[in-house]
Amino acid sequence: MKKFIVVFKKDIVGSLQDSTVSALQAEGAIVGDRISLINAVLVEMTDSVAESLKQNSNIDYIEEDSEVKTC
């Protein structure tokens, strides 16, 4: 499994986020911290779950989590 940042559309908050998170957990994903600054959640999931999540109308975009390095 890989870690992804799942960003919700701007108007998706509260129970709409919770229902998406519950669906992810039912698929075996491990949901971590919420990132309120960008309306997102950190999720550990398989590539196939990430691909299917792209079809969810509540999601703006998904990107694989990575380490950011500065010079």
TrEMBL record:
InterPro entries: Fervidolysin-like_N_prodom (IPR054399), S8pro/Inhibitor_I9_sf (IPR037045)
Alphabetized Pfam families for the sequence: Fervidolysin_NPro-like
Fervidolysin-like N-terminal prodomain domain span: 4-63
Superkingdom, taxonomy of origin: Eukaryota
Protein's recorded name: Fervidolysin-like N-terminal prodomain domain-containing protein
Species in which this protein is naturally found: Smittium simulii
